[in-house]
Every structure is written in structure tokens, then in C-alpha cells.
Specification:
- The complex is a heterodimer of chains A (491) and B (294).
- Chain A has helices at 2-11, 17-23, 39-42, 55-64, 73-76, 83-91, 95-103, 109-115, 122-125, 137-150, 174-185, 202-205, 214-226, 243-248, 279-288, 314-325, 346-355, 422-426, 457-460, 465-487; strands at residues 35-36, 50-52, 166-170, 189-193, 230-232, 251-256, 262-263, 276-278, 306-310, 330-334, 358-360, 363-370, 376-389, 395-399, 405-408, 411-414, 418-419, 452-454.
- Chain A is α/β, with parallel strands linked by helices and 491 residues long.
- In chain A, the strands form five sheets. A five-stranded parallel sheet of chain A has the order 5-4-3-6-18.
- The longest helix of chain A is centred in the last third of the chain and has 23 residues, at 465-487.
- The radius of gyration of chain A is 23 Å and the shape is globular.
- Helices cover 30% and strands 28% of the residues of chain B.
- In chain B, helix 5 (172-181) runs parallel beside helix 6.
- With 294 residues, chain B is α/β, with parallel strands linked by helices.
- Chain B has helices at residues 25-30, 71-77, 114-126, 146-150, 172-181, 193-203, 244-247, 258-265, 269-293; strands at 3-10, 17-23, 36-40, 48-51, 54-56, 61-67, 84-85, 87-92, 105-110, 131-137, 155-160, 167-168, 186-190, 214-217, 233-235, 241-243, 250-252.
- The radius of gyration of chain B is 19 Å and the shape is globular.
- Chain B is built from nine helices and 17 strands.
- Classes of the chains: A alpha/beta (491), B alpha/beta (294).
- Chain A binds chain B through residues 195-197, 205, 232-236, 239-241, 261-263, 265, 269, 271-272, 274, 277-278, 280-281, 284-285, 289-290, 294-302, 373-375, 421, 423, and chain B through 1, 26-27, 30, 40, 44-47, 71-72, 86-92, 223-224, 226-231, 233-235, 239, 241, 246, 257, 260, 263-264, 267-268, 270-272, 274-275, 278.
Chain lengths: 491, 294
């Protein structure tokens, strides 16, 4: 992907204003520095690490934007936010207009401004990379969304005239929220069915408060409710209600955005020892059930003295940093490849390092070892080296024989990935699935059953929040097309 | 959607066991024997897994039976008719397989595990099976739903640890006798882990007794109940991992590594104690305050 964008850069004629920018002072190539909570302090609380930009910082950063005529950042964004335009409006301090500009393409800017991997999307495409540092697009998006919330505003784009057609969206995660928002804007009567007692999906159960305060998810969902999107909680489609029930209730089309929620276990002995748990369990207890506030909240969480996290993605780092905040004495991330292959966001990796998380690269677990009470005591690991690239394009880790050693640990958190949850798909026997249980769709997110669409992790396997949102929006367009043809006799 | 408590009744004479009827029309409509719900009492509550002990599709209700063992169960038992439960989700887990078996079925309920035996006995009875029921409790004050189970049983045996009702002893005593004397198609055991462990050991065919297919119902520690977190997982004797929430809750008792599961079940004991003590102190302080006001 990186390579592709570089090639694209070459093929695009550099915008005229590049020349002008060279005459600007060198300082203009320096990217704004966001304020962070001091690492020593932040590991004692669950408040947000990043404190956001001030108006002065926004003024500085927006002036750096070259306002390219053929912006590269826009195609770099999975939902194609009109980035230069909103930055221009920000520069002119037309904040409400800037908000409208973003929200026509993305109804959840406060979330995306925080958790999108801008460094491999819009910001990676920014032409300023050639001269210095890219525009901090994510920080700017976050600033304007936070400004809206701080001023108790709720700006929504105009919706189309109601069409009186009911669409069911299954799952209130990023894909479902984006799909429902887009459907509402297109005049459909959208209802989201959610299994948990609150919306957000992985944003709520997976991402910790210090990276994405839950207040923000609540507020973004309120925006959707203003667009007349309805939310039904505590309903598991496939258990509480089926697609057939929903059809009887008058729903004409369906979007499945149930994510990839099942944990993957490493295949080593000792998985049932006390102290071994999945990142899903650890993070759901802490984030969704607020176990970090135990005993004010009833859900317990038990933290080891020496916590080992297996994996190198954002989930692994979120677990590691949560464990630190819950008073683990030492937190070690064990990853089988090297630093360069880690899928976690660079920013999060640096934050974890600042906070004192220890990284043990090129290491893989072999065995979890407990005592007579089945309490975890240590982990046997083996050293790895990198071989030839595998299907993912990353160099394959290969165990080095006889390099085994022991790590003393009383808690292991498995953050090595997730797979499809079959609860819903099992209840729709005719739905076409891949051999791994993911739903197969065409480019409009339509499945082999014409009224059923799907998107997000249940189609692609675990990916990013914004790619799920992109799929949700695409599916809404696909649903619109399908319903127009079928019920509104339009082509 | 509110989930109202429509009925509440104390069971036994211990002051710690209650039956509650909840208004959950969507769940009632889909419930079968074997299913459970997850329930969160209030905003700060945890998700408590509770077996569905009875259901009425017409009235849109499910019945749960709760014994006070910690803070959440005490808080739930302190709720009254007309109060609303914040979240109830379900029906979760697999329903049991209902068919006509060749020989009788022995259903064993221990403690409040007797309650979820009821829908299983009922559906299996309705399918034409002969049901032999064994109910076990520590003492007669803790024995519940005897009359209800009687209506679904061709034969009913009671055991108590102290002999205050029925036979003095444990449920495996009559079980041994039954499987020795006659052919049995299936044993279903629901109750404390330790009871289910010994039932499974009795029927696994390793001793002098014949092997009998045995289902146990695992009520392990859960969070989401949909296969996401793995908190409820148990190890098989072969070392494979299964989830009580989506692979169960009723599973083949002969494959469960009960010794490991017993250790896993106590992993939050310290926190559970802390939570209970905080709540207890809070309750007592409130009562004190009430008295002072009066």
C-alpha cells in the first residue's frame, strides 16, 4: 500500500503552490506538536493521553496546508473527507462550516480524529511529506469535533425526505454506525440492533478510555439519534430475534456489521491456568464493564505483578497500557516479529514506551507454566528470527532451535487477533461465507442474499475502525441502490 | 426497554433463595430448555449469567432462581416486584436436544441447580420420556421446587447432607443404585461443580458401574456470553478449550476437566469478598440511618 501511494505521488503533477511554499520559512515545515499528559502521571489515571490542539496550534497548522488543487489526502481517506476544504474553513475560523464539511462524509469525527491510523492514510498521502512533516489532519479533525462537543452543539447535515422504508443495521460498531448514519441521510428509517447494553462495538469494549473517552462515543451516537436513527440494545440477532422476525417487522434490507469478535488462542499448553486471559476479556472487563473502577463498579479484574501481553497490534498495546494503569509492577509485550513489523500505530507504540512498557521482540510463547493451584507462574518462550516474506508481505518469523528461556509472569494477556463470530451467520443458513466464516460480498457490500449487505470486520477480518466505517457507508449506498430499484421503481 | 420484576417469592427457609418472574417478551418467545440470560441490575452492575428456570411465551415472562452468594446476587434479591432490571439479554447458549429415549432419564438437581432442571424435565417428559428425578440439598431449608419437579417426574428421590429431608447422603448414592439396577439412557446433572464432578465420575464407566451418557450444565464466570471473551472457557480432559456460553451450557460431563474448572471458578474470590463487604457495609449504614431517622 505504501509503495502504491509513492507511485501515485510521482504520477500526479505537483500543485502550483509547492513552489510558493518553498519560499515560506523552514519553520512552516515543522508539524504542530500535540500536548500529552506526562507519562509518569498518565499511568496513574485513565484520562486521555493526548490533550488536543489549542486554537493557536490550529491556526499554525492550518496555515501550513498547501490547499492542493488535486489533493492526495482525500483519496488517502477511506471515506474521502474533503480535507483541504475543512482545513481552509478552520483557518478562517468558520468552525461550524468546517464541521458540516466533515460530517457530510463522516458523522463520527471525534472518534476518527482519535483512532484512525492517519499516518498510513490521509497523512501518508500528504504532499508535504516530500518537504517535511505532513499536516496533522487527525488532530485537526479531532479539534473541531471536540470544539463542537465543548460548545454543546450538535451539527448534522441535512437528511433527504423520508422514504418510509425500514432498514435494519445489525451491530452498533463503526461499520453499523456509519451505515445507519448514511442511510438516515438518504431518507431511510434505520434501526440499529446491538447485543450489548451500549453502542460503539469495539470502540466501547476494546479501546480504552485513555485513548477514546466513552463520553465521545455517546455523544457521536446522539448525533445519529438526531438523524432519527433508532438504537435497540440487548438484542442479539440470531438469538433474541432472527432476520425472519425482522422481515415480519417490516424491514426491507439488512446490514450486517457484527465485527470479528471471537478471540484466537495460541496453541500452547497451559491455556486454562488462572492468570491467562484473552485481550477481549481483559479489555471488555475494563472498558465496557468499567472494572478499572472496581469496587464502585461490580465487575472484578485481577492484575498480576508481572503482566505479559502476547501480540504486537493495537489491542496488545491497549492491554499492556491498561495493565500498567491498573498497577502492574512490570508489563512486557512479547511479539514474534521485530519492531518494524509491529502492526500497532507508531504513536501508540511510542506512548507505550514512554509509559515504561517493555518490548520483547522476536520471541514466541511455547508453554504456560503454573503451580499446583493452577495459578500461572512463568512462561517458556523461544527466540525467533525473520525469514522470507509471507502472504502478508511481512518477513515470516522462524523459531531458533534451542533458544528457549523462561519469563517469570503471573498474568498473560493474549492479544494475537480475532476471528468471525458465527452466532448471526449460523442463523442464516443460505448466507455465503468464506472458509474462515467471513461473509462474502461484492463491491457494493451485497451478499448472495439480495436484501442482505455486510461490511467491516465480519467481511474483511480484523481491520481498522475507519475501513469498517468506509464499508458501512459503501453498503448504505448499495442498499439505497437496491431499495430504489426494488421499491421506488428507479434506476 | 425496561425489564420489570412481575413476581418475587422466597424459596426454602434459608432467607437466601428467591424466585423472580421477569417481563422479557422477546426472550420468552425464543427460550428453550438449556438457555440462559445475562442480566445487569444497574449502571454499575456486572453481567450475571442466570439459567432460565421456566418461561411463559403467552405472558412474555421468564423465571429465574437466585441464591445470595455475593454482592450482585444480594443486590438482585433486594429488588422487589415493580422494580426494573436495567439489562436482560438472551436467550443465550444452546437448547438441549429433545427426543424420546429408549430407557428412562435421570435428572439430578443440586441446590438452586434444581430450578434449571425443570424446563429440561418438562420438555423431555412432554416428548414421552420416563423421568427419574434426584434432588439434593444441604438441608431441608435449602430444598426448592420439590412440588414443581414432582409434576414432571415418574419417580422422585430426595437427599440431604444432614438427613433433614429424604435420604441422608448425596445425590450419587441413589444414582449408583439406579444405574446398577436398570438401564438408563441419559443422566442430566445441574448443580454445584463438585456435585457435577462426582456425578460424571459415577457414570463414566471407569468403576464397576455401567457408563451412562451424562450432560452437565456449566455456569462458569462469564462476561459477554456470546463467545467473545473466553472468560467462561473450560478445558477438556484432552486439553482442548471450549466455551460454556456458546458450546454449552449443557456439555458432555465426561469430557470436562472439573479439577481445573473448580480452580478457575474461584479466581475472583478475593474481589468477590471485597465487593460483598463493601455492599454489606453500605446496606448496614443505610439501615442504621433509617433507624436514626425513625
Amino acid at each position: 500500500m505504501m509503495k502504491k501511494i509513492e507511485e501515485d505521488n510521482k504520477s500526479v503533477k505537483p500543485p502550483n503552490r509547492i513552489a510558493k511554499s518553498k519560499s515560506k520559512s523552514h519553520k512552516k515545515l515543522q508539524r504542530v506538536q500535540i500536548k500529552l499528559q506526562d507519562p509518569k502521571i498518565r499511568i496513574t489515571n485513565f484520562e486521555e493521553v493526548s490533550l488536543g490542539l489549542t486554537e493557536e496550534m490550529v491556526e499554525y497548522e492550518t496555515q501550513r496546508c498547501l490547499q492542493c488543487e488535486n489533493p492526495l489526502c482525500v483519496p488517502g481517506c477511506p471515506v474521502n473527507i474533503k480535507i483541504p476544504q475543512f482545513i481552509k474553513l478552520l483557518e478562517e475560523k468558520k468552525y461550524i462550516k468546517a464541521l458540516y464539511k466533515i460530517k457530510t462524509d463522516n458523522l463520527l469525527p471525534a472518534i476518527c480524529g482519535r483512532v484512525c491510523p492517519q499516518e498510513i492514510q490521509c497523512e501518508q498521502a500528504c504532499i508535504l511529506n516530500k518537504l517535511g512533516k505532513p499536516i496533522a489532519i487527525g488532530y485537526l479533525e479531532r479539534f473541531i469535533a471536540d470544539w463542537e462537543r465543548k460548545n454543546n452543539l450538535k451539527e448534522c447535515p441535512e437528511c433527504a425526505v423520508p422514504k418510509g422504508i425500514k432498514v435494519a443495521v445489525i451491530g452498533a460498531g463503526p461499520a453499523g454506525l456509519a451505515c445507519a448514519g448514511e442511510l438516515a441521510m438518504r431518507g431511510y428509517d434505520a434501526t440499529i440492533f446491538e447485543a450489548f447494553h451500549t453502542g460503539g462495538g469495539v470502540l466501547s469494549y476494546g479501546i480504552p478510555e485513555f485513548r477514546l473517552p466513552k463520553e465521545i462515543i455517546k455523544s457521536e451516537i446522539e448525533t445519529l439519534e438526531m438523524l432519527n436513527v433508532k438504537l435497540e440494545y440487548n438484542i442479539i440477532i440470531g438469538k433474541t430475534l432472527t432476520i425472519e422476525d425482522l422481515k415480519e417487522m417490516g424491514f426491507k434490507a439488512f446490514f450486517i456489521g457484527v465485527g470479528a469478535g471471537l478471540p484466537i488462542f495460541v496453541k500452547v499448553p497451559g491455556l486454562s491456568l488462572n492468570g491467562v486471559l484473552t485481550a477481549n476479556e481483559f479489555l471488555t472487563r475494563s472498558n465496557l464493564m468499567k472494572a478499572f473502577k472496581f469496587p464502585d463498579y461490580d465487575t472484578p479484574i485481577k492484575i498480576g505483578k508481572i503482566v505479559t501481553v502476547i501480540g504486537g497490534g493495537n489491542v496488545a498495546l491497549d492491554s499492556a497500557r491498561t495493565a500498567l494503569r491498573l498497577n502492574a509492577e512490570k508489563v512486557i509485550v512479547v511479539y514474534r516479529r521485530s519492531e518494524a513489523e509491529m502492526p500497532a500505530r507508531r504513536e501508540e507504540y511510542h506512548h507505550a514506551l514512554e509509559e515504561g512498557v517493555i518490548f520483547q521482540f522476536l520471541t514466541n510463547p511455547v508453554k504456560f507454566i503454573g503451580d499446583e493451584n493452577d495459578d500461572l507462574k512463568q512462561m517458556e518462550v523461544i527466540k525467533m528470527e525473520l525469514g522470507e516474506p509471507d502472504e502478508s508481505g511481512r518477513r515470516r518469523p522462524i523459531p531458533i532451535e534451542n533458544s528457549n528461556f523462561l519469563i517469570k509472569t503471573d498474568m498473560i494477556i493474549l492479544g494475537i487477533g480475532t476471528r468471525a463470530n458465527p452466532i448471526l451467520t449460523k442463523s442464516i443458513p443460505d448466507l455465503k461465507l468464506s472458509k474462515w466464516g467471513y461473509i462474502e460480498t461484492d463491491k457494493n457490500c451485497q451478499t448472495n442474499i439480495e436484501e442482505i449487505f455486510a461490511g467491516g470486520d465480519i467481511v474483511t477480518g480484523a481491520a481498522t475502525v475507519i475501513s469498517a466505517m468506509g464499508a458501512g457507508k459503501r453498503a448504505a449506498r448499495g442498499i439505497d441502490k437496491y431499495l430504489q430499484r426494488k421499491y421506488l421503481k428507479m434506476n | 426497554m425496561p425489564y420489570e420484576i412481575l413476581e418475587k417469592k422466597e424459596l426454602g427457609h434459608s432467607g437466601a433463595i428467591y424466585e423472580m418472574v421477569l417481563h422479557t417478551p422477546l426472550i420468552a418467545k425464543k427460550t428453550h430448555a438449556g438457555n440462559f440470560v445475562l442480566l445487569r441490575i444497574n449502571e454499575t452492575g456486572e453481567r450475571i449469567p442466570l439459567s432460565i428456570a421456566d418461561y411463559n411465551r403467552e405472558k412474555g415472562t421468564i423465571t429465574v432462581v437466585i441464591q445470595v452468594v455475593g454482592k450482585s446476587t444480594k443486590l438482585l434479591c433486594n429488588q422487589n416486584v415493580g422494580d426494573q432490571i436495567l439489562d436482560v439479554v438472551g436467550p443465550l447458549g444452546n437448547k438441549i436436544h429433545i427426543k424420546k429415549y429408549e430407557y428412562p432419564i435421570v435428572i439430578i438437581g443440586g441446590g438452586i441447580g434444581i430450578a434449571p432442571c425443570f424446563p429440561q424435565a418438562k420438555e423431555l417428559k412432554e416428548a414421552g420420556n420416563e423421568i427419574i428425578t434426584i434432588l439434593g440439598a444441604r438441608s431441608k431449608d435449602l430444598l426448592i421446587w420439590k412440588e414443581k419437579m414432582e409434576t414432571m417426574s415418574d419417580q422422585l428421590i430426595i437427599t440431604t447432607d444432614d438427613g433433614s429431608k429424604g435420604m441422608k447422603g448425596v445425590v450419587t448414592d441413589p444414582l449408583k443404585k439406579i444405574i446398577q439396577e436398570r438401564k438408563i439412557s441419559l443422566v442430566i446433572a445441574i448443580g454445584p461443580l463438585i456435585m457435577m464432578k462426582y456425578v460424571a465420575l459415577t457414570t463414566n464407566g471407569t468403576g464397576d458401574l455401567p457408563k451412562v451418557k451424562t450432560f452437565v450444565s456449566l455456569n462458569t464466570i462469564m462476561v459477554d456470553g456470546t463467545g467473545m471473551c473466553g472468560s467462561c472457557r473450560f478445558s477438556t480432559i484432552e486439553g482442548d478449550i471450549q466455551f460454556a456460553c456458546v458450546d454449552g451450557p449443557d456439555v458432555d460431563g465426561h469430557i470436562v476437566d472439573f479439577d481445573n474448572l473448580l480452580k478457575r471458578a474461584s479466581r475472583f474470590l478475593d474481589q468477590e469478598k471485597e465487593s460483598f463487604e463493601c455492599y454489606d457495609a453500605e446496606c448496614r449504614a443505610l439501615e442504621q440511618l433509617k433507624k436514626e431517622v425513625e
